[in-house]
Amino acid sequence: MSGIGFGPAVGGGDSEAKITPTIIISCLMAATGGLMYGYDIGITGGVTSMADFLKKFFPGVYQRTQEEVNSTYCKYDSHGIQLFTSSLYLAGLTATFFASYTTRRLGRRLTMLIAGVFFIAGTVFNAAAQDLAILIFGRILLGCGIGFANQVVPMFLTEIAPTRIRGGLNILFQLNITIGILSANYVNNGTSKIKGGWGWRLSLGLAGIPACLLTLGALLVVDTPNSLIERGCFEEGKAILRKIRGTNNIEPEFLELVEASRIAEEVKHPFRNLLKRRNRPQLVIAIFLQIFQQCTGINAIMFYAPVLFNTLGFKTDASLFSAAIIGAVNVLSTIVSIYLADKVGRRALLTEAGIQMFLSQIVIANIIGIKMKDDSVDLSKSLAIIVVILVCTFVSSFAWSWGPLCWLIPSEIFPLETRSAGQSVTVCVNFLITFVIAQAFLSLLCHLKYGIFLFFSGWILIMSAFVLFLLPETKNIRIEEMTERVWKQHWFWKRFMDYD
C-alpha cells in the first residue's frame, strides 16, 4: 500500500510525501501518551468529589461537605487535596529535564517506552494505596510518566508528519487528551455509584489501560528520521524516511536533515544555546504560550469540574454528569481543530477563541455573583443549565485553539539543535504553571468567589494581545525553513536574526 497522496508543499521531497500506513499507525500509537495525560486530568476531580475517597484520605474535607452551615465556596479548600492533584505536575516538571537527555541521546521511541513504564507503576500504587503517602507516591510516578510523554510525543508527531498535515497530526496528542478526560468523566460517573467504598480504586486503576497502550505503542512504532540521523544512524534514518514518506524522492529532505544534524552536533550545551539571541523568539513564544494556556482557567475547570459543580449547588450525580458533558464537547471541538489548524492557521484560531472564552467567563461571573451568596447554596435549575452551557462554550473554544496549538507551535518552531531542550522548557513551564493553578485554585475559589472567573478573563485579554502582535503564522512551513520564512520576516522578531 503506497498511501494517499496530497497537494504539493514547499521544500524538498515533502512535495511527493504520502499519508502512509506507517505514519498513521505511528502517530496513533504515539498519541496515546495524551490519552493517559487526559485520563488523569479527568479522573482527579471526580475521585476527589467521591465520599468514600474523602472519608479515607481527607476526613476533614468530608466533614465540611456534610455540614449545612458552611461557605459554599470553601468546603473543598484543602491543601491536601490540592497536593494530591498538583504533585503530579511537580514531578512532571522535574522529569522533563531527564526526558530531554533521553530524547536526544536515546531517541524518541525509547523515551516513550520509559514514559509507559512510569505510567504503569504509578497506576498500581494509586489503585492499591492504603494511606496518603502511597497515594502521593503513585501520583509522583504518574507525573514522571507525563513529564517524559509530554516531552517526546509532540516532538515525535511533528517530526514524522508531512508538512501539509503537520498541524492535524500533532493535534492527535491533544485529541487523545480530550478523549482521556471524557473517558475519565464517564468512568467516575459509573464508579461513584459502586457500593462498598472501592469505586475510586477502580477509577484510578483503569488508568492502566492507556498506560499499557502507550507502552505497547512504543514497542511497535519506528523512531523518527530526525532522531536516527541526529544519533548518527544515517542509512537507517534514510530508510525510515523513505518508508514514512511513501516515495523514493526523499533526497532533498534527507540532506536537510543531515545538515540540521551536523549543526545540532556542534551544540554541546543545548540549554545554554537556547539563550543565544537568535533563539530568543522561539523561547519567548514557547514559554508565554504555556503560561497563557494555563491562565485561561481551563485546567482549573477540568481538574475540579465535579467539585466546581458541587460548589455551585449541583448534586453529586448531576455534577459528574455535567463534567461528562463538558468532556464530550472537549473531544468534538478538538476534532474541529484537526481540520482547521492547517487551513485557517494558528493565529486565527487563537484570536477567535480568545473572544469567545472572554465573553463566556464574564457572563458566568455575573450570573454567579448576582444569584449565588455564601448562605445560598443552590442556583435555580434554569441558571444552573445556563452555567453548564457557558462552561461548554468556554471549553469548546479552548479545545480548538489554545489546547492543541500550545503544544503544536513550540514543537515546530525550534531548530533541531535546540528542539529537545526547547521542548523540555516548554513542558517544564506548562507543568510549573499547572502546578501553581492546581495548588491554588480551590483557595482562590474560596477567597475570590465568583471573581475567580474575572481573574482568568483578565489573562485572556492579555494573551489575545500577545497573539495579535507577537505570534507569527507557522502553518504549511517546513520546520527546517522557519528561520528564513518566519523569523526573518516578522516585524519584531527579525531584529534577533541579525546576530549569531
UniProtKB/TrEMBL annotation:
Question: Does the record bear Membrane in its keywords?
Answer: yes
Principal location listed in the UniProt entry = membrane
One family name in Pfam for this protein: Sugar_tr
Please provide the record's keywords in A-Z order.
Answer: Membrane, Sugar transport, Symport, Transmembrane, Transmembrane helix, Transport
Q: Where is the Major facilitator superfamily (MFS) profile domain?
A: 26-475
InterPro entries per record: MFS_dom, MFS_STP/MST-like_plant, MFS_sugar_transport-like, MFS_trans_sf, STP/PLT_plant, Sugar/inositol_transpt, Sugar_transporter_CS
Any keyword Transport? yes
On the tree of life, the source organism's domain of life is Eukaryota
This protein's membrane topology, according to the annotation, is: Multi-pass membrane protein
Q: Which GO terms describe its molecular function?
A: monosaccharide transmembrane transporter activity; symporter activity
| Transmembrane regions listed in the UniProt entry | 80-98, 110-128, 134-157, 169-187, 199-222, 283-307, 319-341, 353-370, 382-409, 421-444, 450-471
Q: Where in the cell is it found?
A: Membrane
Q: Name one GO cellular component term.
A: membrane
Instruction: Give the UniProt family note.
Output: Belongs to the major facilitator superfamily. Sugar transporter (TC 2.A.1.1) family.
Q: Specify the protein name.
A: Sugar transport protein
Q: Which organism is it from?
A: Quillaja saponaria
What taxonomic lineage is listed for the species of origin?
A: Eukaryota, Viridiplantae, Streptophyta, Embryophyta, Tracheophyta
